[in-house]
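pls design
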């Protein structure tokens, strides 16, 4: 019997949306959950960073709000900004369905940039409701 998907599985729908977007796929098709040790640049890593449950009366689940970090790793700064713009275009204000799970809303709520381990990093934080 399949376990029903909740906001804990939000990463699978984020990954699917990114891989189905032609602008993102044109820049990289390497999208990993949480971390990777062996990817060649450019690539994307995503993770669920925070979850706020919204319980309803009688114990029914509500629309959880999840913070999802999407990190874009590239060799050159400009390439990273372009990949981040493509990621934002794919996820910002989108709703989607994937494998029985519904992404009700998604918007960019924060961003940051850095340089780490010989790569430029664009960090995008999305607020997601599932």
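designed seq:
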């Amino acid at each position: 019997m399949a376990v029903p998907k909740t906001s804990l599985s939000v990463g699978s729908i984020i990954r699917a949306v990114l891989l189905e977007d032609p602008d993102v796929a044109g820049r990289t098709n390497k999208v990993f959950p949480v971390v990777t040790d062996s990817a060649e640049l450019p690539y994307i890593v995503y993770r669920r960073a925070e979850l706020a449950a919204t319980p309803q009366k009688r114990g029914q689940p509500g629309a959880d709000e999840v913070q999802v970090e999407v990190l874009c790793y590239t060799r050159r700064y400009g390439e990273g900004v372009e990949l981040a713009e493509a990621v934002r275009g794919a996820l910002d204000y989108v709703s989607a369905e994937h494998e029985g799970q519904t992404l009700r809303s998604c918007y960019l709520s924060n961003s940051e940039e850095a340089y780490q381990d010989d790569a430029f990093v664009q960090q995008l934080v999305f607020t997601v409701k599932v």
